[in-house]
Amino acid sequence: MEQYSTAMGRVWSKLTRPVKNINVESRAHKVIDEIPTRAPNYPSTEKVLDKFINEHPELLDKQKQKDEGLLTNLKHIRIESFGPPPEIKSLKRPLPTITTTQKEPEYGFFEPRRIPVGKTSIRLALNFLADHQAAPKTYSAAVIATEHKLDIRQVEQVIKYFHTFHIHMPLELKKKHPKLLDLLETKKTIGAKDHPELLDTPVEPEVKKT
Fold it and tell me: What is the pTM (predicted TM-score) of this model?
């Protein structure tokens, strides 16, 4: 049924197309030659225009006439340029000179080279947080604020709501592997081949084939 209706639609469009295109050019010229009607003004604007036309009818007639004096002055205007053309400087930023691949920053983004007074970086914040957690009396908020030139109230909020991570090991694991905590604190990659004592089962050494 759908195929039948589609075929009938195509046939009908072919039959009616010549009728639609009769005298199409003259009809198009008639539409183009029609003067478009201007959109009506707002009532308040219409009142202002009517008042201006009634009070200054001469200005309305004058704007429809050419001013011969202005046209004559316009013909005498001449622009002359002297000297070499001005140099056009490009405002585009220069391309980067470093084309090598940069190392991935430790904290996810590059740290600033200069830290303004009253500000700090993530690295410095982690350092004084770790110092405060290790020795709260020695590294108090006042000492940290004086050393890093920070606002003491902001430092108090930081050490109150932010803490660094600590590794807590079960006593059994610590007795079984006493060097594990030291290895984790050094931030080194711990591999079973380098430290086979960390595994319950010994690691068989690799045998190189010749």
Answer: 0.38
